[in-house]
Amino acid sequence: MAYYTRIDREACIACGACVMVAPELYDYDDDCLAYFPKDRNQGITPVCDPLVEAMFDAHDGCPTDSVKIAKQPFHGLPLDDE
Ligand code: SF4
Considering only CA atoms, which residue is closest to atom 3 of ligand 1? Predict the structure, then answer.
């Protein structure tokens, strides 16, 4: 089963937890807000199986519920267009 992820950057408080838990999946921008760099936070690139557990750990550890996970692509705006 494929999973998709992106960050709700409106809700992110730049605490850094998701990047510490899953550095292969998430990164910071210049404002220290997290994003999913594989597709510039659109959430349309499937997360490969070895990283699914880390994705859920990041989701569970986010204090603002900003790490989004779905079984369908998000079709979010690219990072530069937010
Ligand atoms: Fe933002 Fe949540 Fe990641 Fe913290 S854990 S940087 S609030 S997305």
Answer: 18
The pocket around ligand 1, CB under 6 angstroms, is made up of 7, 12-18, 34, 62-64, 66-67
Query: pLDDT tens digits for 64-81?
Result: 999 999 999 998 877 766
Residue-wise pLDDT for 1-45, tens only, equals: 899 999 999 999 999 999 999 999 999 999 999 999 999 999 999
Put simply, whether the predicted model's pTM sits higher than 0.85 gets the answer: yes
Instruction: Give CA separation, 14 vs 2, 46, 66, in Å.
Output: 27, 24, 10
What count of Cα atoms within 13 Å lies in the side-chain half-sphere of residue 48? 5
Ligand 1, closest atom to CA 19? Answer: 3
Of 64, 82, 70, the residue nearest 6 (C-alpha): 70
